[in-house]
Amino acid sequence: MNRQSVIYGTLVLAATGLLNRILGFAYRILVVRLVGAEGIGLYEMVFPAYVLMLVITTAGIPVAIARIVAAQVALGKSARAQRFFRFTFWLLCLLGLTVTVALNYLAPVFVPFFFADPRAYQPFRALTPAILIVSLCSALRGLFQGRQQMTPPALAQLAEQVVRIVVGLSMASLWLTRGVEYAATGLAVGMVAGEGAGFLFLAGWYLVARPGRGTADSSRRESLLPLVKEMYALALPVSLSRIVGSVTLTLEAMLIPQRLQAAGYALRQATEIYGYYAGMAMTLVHLPNILTSSLAVSMVPAIAAAMAVGNTPAVHRRCQEAVRVTVVTSLPFAAIFYLLPYQLTSLIFAAPEAGLPLRVLAMGSFFFYLQQTTAGILQGLGRVNTVLRHSLVSNAITLAGIYFLTGLPAYGIAGTALAVNVGAAVFCWLNISAIKEEAGLSLPLVSVLFSPLAATVLMAGTLLYTYARLAPAAGPLIGTGTSLGVGLTVYLGALLLTGGLTRRDLQRLPWIGHLFG
Questions:
Q1: Does the pLDDT value for residue 512 go beyond 50?
Q2: CA dist., res. 155 & res. 204, Å (int)
Q3: What's the half-sphere exposure (Cβ side, CA atoms, 13 Å) at 301?
Q4: Which of 439, 445, 138 is CA-nearest to residue 306?
């Protein structure tokens, strides 16, 4: 198994992630039109609680696997890395099985206590088998990522998506006549089937590739105890940080419908509005996460490997490159979501009501994307405790803002989006400060921002002009699609002219980079 460069691995993840996200968008569009905002609201209400249980189960171990395996391989101890992986795989198997069985028995007590809508019971229980499957799958992902092999996890995500779409739509359609809660349960069954397909794909790749095969195991005399201690030293803060994030999402799923009712909405209206926000606006805002999440995944093992051999210049270079790529890709999306929110939500979801939270979220979306990259850098540097502290502060701010702003009739769901923006901005600022002060790295945000910002302004003007000229005559579909195409073309051209995108960047693209040689 040959290692891949950070940018190559990131772009492989991003390319498959783009296809994955396109399929996901198509799936979400069909689901929204099939089960409506109320059904989506029920599913999105349950999903954060499922994620919380999953985070508790895996306990941050997959990130620790990636970092420790990367460091051991860099030190020439590939066989020891393989022994460590096998130990963690069976540990996650035991944890996943325990939590899955416990949740199935406790669901009748758990659901009424945590969810405002009692119809969440069936979707929640249907999701619980996925915890065991994802636990095993995450161990395999940690191994491949630690060896800086991003292709298997990327293709596994694609397999997950395809199976989830087929099974989810089939089951939701079949059960819709029984009520929206059963349609949401069908979506949950699709999620479980998709995760199962992803696990089978990764397990098959692992059995064929057999990483570490043929390596002399001179490390057999070395105890795994130091690595296990290091794993928990890394995993505990990562786990706590993710638990904080998952608890926040779960509390949001409980709090937002309740505070919307306090603002004067009925229960069904509150569930629908939450569906517009979480199931539609957030789905669009997270589109650029294809690249930023790929960067975060790639940065952890890449930085850990460079630190293991004392290559400080490589650490600095990789961190600065990650920030530059994040800025270049995130700014145009933020502008598009702000300028055309109602057009996008109408065309994609036939739900213009999701345009309001989308426009407000767009104002802070830049921080959503940059916080992922900076958190990945800090985790790669081993500053997992720092990420945990920042997560606690930002999530506390977010929840407080949601409680006060969402309950005000003048704000409602726009208040929710505003609170989320503020929390993301605080988290991002704290991460950047820590990278500069604690790790001794300089992130050239000012110089990195200049070219993409100028290109974004030019793109925004072009987009608005094109839409205003085309939409009245050609209709919203052609007007929106054409203006987006023209605007993004102008953005790329402006980046090349101003040096924000270089020939070297193009040469590093997977599969087509040689065309720019």
A1: no
A2: 12
A3: 30
A4: 439
Nearest to 66 by CA among 379, 365, 352: 379
* Together in a domain, 414 and 329: yes
Q: Are 168 and 190 in contact (CB under 8 A)?
A: yes
- Please list the alpha-helical segments (H only) found in 118-179: 121-127, 129-146, 151-175
Backbone angles phi, psi at 111, to 5 degrees: -65, -50
* DSSP H stretches of helix in 210-224: none
Assess contact for 141 and 62: CB atoms under 8 A.
Answer: yes
Residues 263 and 323 in one domain: yes
The parent domain of residue 453 ranges over 445-517
Token digits of residue 186: 């069908």
* 396, 515: one domain: no
Q: How confident is the model at residue 472 (pLDDT cuts 50, 70, 90)?
A: confident
Collapsing DSSP states into helix, strand and coil, what is residue 115? Answer: coil
Look at 237 and 40; give whichever has higher pLDDT: 40
> Is residue 217 in some structural domain?
no
| DSSP conformation class of 224 | S
Q: For residues 423 and 455, state if they share a domain.
A: no
Same domain, 475 and 361: no
Residues in the chain: 517
Q: What is the pLDDT of residue 49?
A: 78
The set of long-range contacts for 82-86, using a CB threshold of 8 Å and a minimum separation of 24, is 82/211, 82/212, 82/215, 83/217, 83/219, 83/220, 83/224, 84/224, 84/227, 84/228, 84/231, 85/139, 85/142, 85/143
d(CA 331, CA 291): 13
Range scoring the smallest mean pLDDT among 149-153, 169-173, 303-307, 509-513: 509-513
Q: Is 441 left (phi over 0), alpha (psi -120 to 50) or beta?
A: beta
| CA–CA dist 99, 54 (Å, integer) | 9
Per-residue pLDDT tens digits for 473-485: 888 889 999 999 9
216, part of any domain: no
Q: Is 144 exposed, middle or buried (0-12, 13-18, 19+ CB in 10 A)?
A: buried
Range 285-305 average pLDDT: 66
- What tens digit of pLDDT does each residue of 228-264 get? 777 777 777 767 777 777 788 778 888 999 999 999 9
Q: How confident is the model at residue 511 (pLDDT cuts 50, 70, 90)?
A: very low
Beta-carbon contacts of residue 475 (< 8 Å; ≥ 6 apart) = none
